[in-house]
């Protein structure tokens, strides 16, 4: 014989009060983390520099695009510049080999353009260049599908980095 529900013996009024309390408690639950909050909060897992002291700049070009990371403001922080340059030099080398593990880790494997870039990296020219206040990675391709993948990937990063990124 089945056991009665633990709430079966409670009066209807008590059940209604419990249900109302549950709804009220849920309305005070912490809101889900936004993508921008996730990227800003977890960026240190793949980027050694401080996202609050730097900005990502994305420029789409006819043959791909240029991604820069620079120190915010006029006075370049030498330690941040060193970390940016080291990181971007390594990333450019990895990207040229089709290794986009860092952006995949931070933004997720379904990030727009990521799969196409991983598969087509050897058909692209991906180069690093230091800048006085940071560094840049340039992506060049002759295949319009790869150019489109770079543009989609840049668009996703612009959206997901939020206030830590801008386009030019």
Automatic annotation (TrEMBL):
It comes from the Bacteria. Residues 1-32 form the signal peptide. This is Aspartate carbamoyltransferase. Keywords: Signal. The lineage of its organism: Bacteria, Pseudomonadati, Pseudomonadota, Betaproteobacteria, Burkholderiales. The keyword Signal applies.
